[in-house]
Amino acid sequence: MQERTVFGKPLASxxxxxxxxxxxxxAAEIARMLHEIGCREAEAADRPGSxxxxxxxxxxxxxxxxxxxxxxxxSASQLFGGESYRTDGYVGRATADLRPFxxxxxxxxxxxxxxxQAAEKAAKTGGESFADAVRRAHELAGWPVPSVAAFTTDDxxxxxxxxxxxLGGRVLANAEVLRRGLEAGLSSAALLPLRRRIxxxxxxxxxxxxxxxxxxx
Length: 217
Ligand SMILES: Cc1cc2nc3c(=O)[nH]c(=O)nc-3n(C[C@H](O)[C@H](O)[C@H](O)COP(=O)(O)OP(=O)(O)OC[C@H]3O[C@@H](n4cnc5c(N)ncnc54)[C@H](O)[C@@H]3O)c2cc1C
What we know:
Oligomer: single chain
Bound molecules: flavin-adenine dinucleotide
C-alpha cells in the first residue's frame, strides 16, 4: 500500500485503505489469540482422562476464525485490485483457499445454531442467558449495552426461528472471543472487528427478524 501509486498518491494515503488495513491487522491479532486458545484446548484434550475439546469452544473458535479470515482475504482484494483475481497471487489464492473453511467441519450457519442451542440449554440449568452474555461483553468493553429484544420469545421453548438462532449464535461466538480478547489484553483497536460484527448482527435481528439468518459473511 506504501509502494503502489493510485491517482498520483500512495494507496496507503487513502482513508478507506487505512481502515481496511487496520481491520485486517486487527483480525490477525484476534487470529493469533484464537490460535493460542486452540493449542491450549488441544493440549488439554490430549491429557489422559480428557473427554476431548469441548464442542462449544471448538465451534466458537472455528466460526470466528474462519469468518474473520475470509473477510480479511476479500477485503484485501479491494486493495490489490485486479491482481487479487489471479490465483497465482497471494490474495487470490488465499481467497479461494479460505472459502471452504466456513463450510467444512459443519458449515458456520449450522455451528452458529449449535452454539445458540448449547447456550440456551446451559441457561436453563443456571448458565448465563443470551441477554446477560451480550450485556457482560459490552460492559467489559465499556460500550453501551444494545437491545436484544428480537431474541426474546413470549411463547416459550423452540419458538425462535432458526435464522435468529443462527444470528444469536454468531453474536455469542463473537462476544465470547471479545471477552477473551479483553482478558488477553488485546487493544480496543484489535477488538473492533468483533464489535462491528456484534453490532451488525444485533441490528439485523432488530430490523428484519424473519430474514435475520441471511447475513452475508
Ligand atoms: C475442504 C473440505 C474438506 C473436508 N474434509 C472432510 C474430512 O476430512 N472428513 C469429513 O468427514 N468431512 C469433510 N468435509 C465435509 C464437511 O464436513 C461437510 O462439507 C460439512 O459438514 C457440510 O456437510 P455437507 O456438505 O454434507 O452439507 P449438508 O449437511 O448437506 O448441508 C448443505 C447445506 O445445508 C445447510 N444445513 C445443513 N443442515 C442444516 C440444518 N440443520 N439447519 C440449517 N441448515 C442446514 C448447510 O449450512 C449447508 O448450507 C470437508 C469439506 C470441505 C469443504
